[in-house]
Amino acid sequence: MFSVIIPTLNAAAGLETTLAALAEAKASDGQFEIVVVDGGSHDGTPDLAARLGARLIAAPRGRGVQLAAGAKASCGPWLLFLHADTVLEPGWSGAARTFIARPTAKTEAAAFRFALDDDAPVARRLEKAVAWRCRVIGLPYGDQGLLIHRDFYDSLGGYRTLPLMEDVDFIRRVGRRRIVMLDKAAVTSAARYRCDGYLRRGLRNLLCLSLYLAGVPPRHILRVYG
């Protein structure tokens, strides 16, 4: 059994599609739970999550805080952390179970291939750039999902209560040699890229990562991220 943990904050617009993809897999393989950790939504997200069969818990606002709270409240020995606007490709649960069956899986973590729900050529270029980052640097982000055994997660100290970069912080503790990339996609909403502009948002994300790797505290990077 594994637990899917989804942090939310005013995520009603995309959450139903995310949960529908999980429900489809759960119908054929019911050995997992869905835990939605809400950070104070006022758009009906909690009611929607409960109506669609997720277990709902409340936590202070902040993705790192919410992820940590979800891990603590969940029941499964395997944890799958997922963003509320990310839809897993059909067949994802089979890929997850193939990873779990690996002899070394309990000391590794797995992430899905990054994809965007946008037909624009610039979206494909960004996907290729992310694939390069994962392959060469071993640095998948939170919008690619993360599957990890609870014991390994706990041994690394879990997600920290950072205002930003909580996913990069945790993946760096996992270590690039212990990251396994799955052959199924995590399709993430491109709404923010379309709103901000692919180039502008991409450069901002790169700047935030560079500042973090240079040792700038996440609370200061948050001013750049917006």
Description of the molecule:
With 226 residues, this protein is α/β, with parallel strands linked by helices. 38% of the residues are buried. It has one domain: Spore Coat Polysaccharide Biosynthesis Protein SpsA, Chain A (Alpha-Beta Complex). The protein has an eight-stranded mixed beta sheet, sandwiched between helices. It contains ten helices and eight strands. The model has no long low-confidence stretch (mean pLDDT 94). Helix 1 packs parallel to helix 2 (45-51) and helix 9 packs antiparallel against helix 10.
Briefly summarize what is shown.
This protein has helices at residues 12-28, 45-51, 63-73, 92-100, 121-137, 150-155, 166-174, 191-196, 198-213, 218-225, and strands spanning 2-8, 32-38, 55-58, 78-81, 86-88, 109-116, 146-149, 179-188.
